[in-house]
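Input (Small VCP interacting protein):
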Amino acid sequence: MGMCLPCLGGAADDVVVTPDPEIRRRQLADAAEKRQKETTYRGVKNPEAVERKRKKQEEVEKQAMTTSVSGGGGGGLKWQVG
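Output:
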């Protein structure tokens, strides 16, 4: 009959210790970042190559914006009359 009730001496071992709120917050942030990374690269065989292509594309766009702004020609279109 004593099988239904846990031994009082061992009850302290069954207590789950809650980590410090700061540690818990850091763990949750790490887990969220990991999930986001996994969903971003889901189905991609080589995520590093995708990241390199994305960065290169951003640099090309930045270069294009810089040259179009410094050109000052109003968008690069010429108007000819006659």
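The chain is about 55% helix and 0% strand.
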